[in-house]
Amino acid sequence: MVERNVGGRDRLVRTVLAVALTALAVVKLRDGDRTTGLLAGVAAAGLGFNAVTCFCGLNAALGVDTTSEE
């Protein structure tokens, strides 16, 4: 199991961005802009994963831990 390093406002921001990027991906894919839609979808999936698991590989590599922020 990985150690949690995402919490507080960081987790909330990642969740909001994941939702917004999901909406953008749907709109772009519907309009036929597959490149932008797929990139937005991948970014949304990554941020959503970070928010749900409370773990971010980049945070771990940089030594950042936001779990103590309120």
Would you mind describing this structure in some detail?
With 70 residues, this protein is mostly helical. It has one domain (8-58). Helices cover 70% and strands 0% of the residues. The protein has three helices and no strands. The protein has helices spanning 8-30, 34-53, 57-62. This is Inner membrane protein YgaP-like transmembrane domain-containing protein. It holds the Pfam family YgaP-like_TM.
Mean pLDDT across the residues is 95
Sheet of most strands? none
The gyration radius over C-alpha positions equals 14 Å
Beta fraction: under 5%
Shape: elongated
Order of helices and strands: HHH
In terms of per-residue confidence, which ranges show pLDDT below 50 for 5 or more consecutive residues? none
Number of helices, counting only DSSP H or I runs of 4 residues or more: 3
Q: How many strand units?
A: 0
Helix-strand category:
mainly alpha
Query: Terminal Cα separation, in Å?
Result: 24 Å
Q: What's the number of domains?
A: 1
In percent, how helical is the residue content? over 70%
